[in-house]
Amino acid sequence: MEKLCPRFEKAMGLLSTRWVGLILFDLLKGTKRFSEMEADLPISGRLLSDRLKLLEKEGIVKRNIYSEFPVRIEYSLTEKGKSLEPVIKEIQDWADNHVTPEEVEDQNA
Amino acid sequence: MEKLCPRFEKAMGLLSTRWVGLILFDLLKGTKRFSEMEADLPISGRLLSDRLKLLEKEGIVKRNIYSEFPVRIEYSLTEKGKSLEPVIKEIQDWADNHVTPEEVEDQNA
DNA sequence: AAGAATAAGTTACTTTTTGTAATCAATCAT
DNA sequence: ATGATTGATTACAAAAAGTAACTTATTCTT
Predict the structure, then answer these.
(1) Which helix (H) or strand (E) holds B86?
(2) In angstroms, rounded to a whole number, what is the distance separating the alpha carbons of residues A77 and A96?
(3) FRET partner for A85 with CA separation of 20 to 30 A, picked from A14, A26, A69, B77?
(4) Distance separating alpha carbons of residues B47 and B52, to the nearest angstrom
(5) Class of A7-108 in CATH
(6) How far apart are the C-alpha atoms of A81 and A28, rounded to whole Å?
(7) With contacts defined as CB-CB under 8 Å, which chain B residues touch A24?
(8) How far is the CA of A56 from the C1' of C8 (A)?
(9) Prior bond to B70 cis, omega within 30?
(10) Rounded to two decimals, what is the model's pTM?
(11) CATH architecture designation of domain B31-99
């Protein structure tokens, strides 16, 4: 019996939390507001709120409040968050090379 | 509004399916039988069965039956499955560099 | 001060997915 | 026949996710 690596397990647990990958993909393009992310991603406000809290707790996302009218709250990646870029990039490369248009269709069906 | 890449979305949907990452990690070490994977991973037979069916359907895992006694069924990665190695490796690298022992504890608590 | 406007959430409720344990199917040895 | 062994499947309870309406905080307009 081959034991799993606990760190890998932890990392994979985070990355495999539903929507986390897409949120990282979005934030790697730059700072975003809550409503922007809600528009970019196929995720409801309830879960976006949950996931941003999780990622903030994990030190991957930071939250900045600007007291303007209307209030502006910006989310961005911390250094730890940015360090996930190679992971996301590797997934993108795999997707470019191995995900067929039909598979994309299937998903949307 | 920045649109997501549909291929990335599809790839991430697969990779973020619970247990898929751990199954890939396990199978990258070589061919495995059902009961071995059940022992290696913190996953129940019901979901292991579901996930192997999913991965087989996606062309990532292949299933080989040997009609011995008792029946032996071996699971291994297809070429497409093996092509995910750089993704898993990148996650492992990130985990080695950014997951702290405390975080591993938290997860087990 | 009163009321509208806006962004960012939260709550209440339903549906889907997981987890757990018991059970089944096929095969062979006794 | 009975029991052992692997690889599942089924039934049911618990947890997580999806949806849409509601709330909060702030500030602008009048």
Answers:
(1) helix B85-98
(2) 24
(3) B77
(4) 8
(5) mainly alpha
(6) 9
(7) none
(8) 16
(9) yes
(10) 0.95
(11) Orthogonal Bundle (1.10)
Q: Which nucleotides of C are covered by protein (CB under 7 A)?
A: 5-12, 17-22, 26-29
Query: Residue A29 has which token pair?
Result: 């393009």
Rounded CA gap, B19 and B54, in Å? 11
For chain B, which residues make up each domain, given as ranges? Answer: 31-99
Is residue B75 within 8 Å of B31, Cβ to Cβ?
A: yes
- Taking residues B78-87, report their average pLDDT: 98
Q: What's the average pLDDT block by block, 10 residues per block, for chain A (109 residues)?
A: 91 97 98 96 96 97 93 97 98 97 80
The reply to whether the CB atom of residue A18 sits less than 7 A from any atom in nucleic acid chain D is yes
Strand D contact nucleotides, protein CB < 7 Å: 4-11, 16-21, 25-28
A104 vs B10, B15, B103: nearest CB: B10
Nucleotide nearest to A70 (CA to C1'): C6
Show the beta-strand stretches assigned E in B1-109. Answer: 32-33, 61-66, 72-77
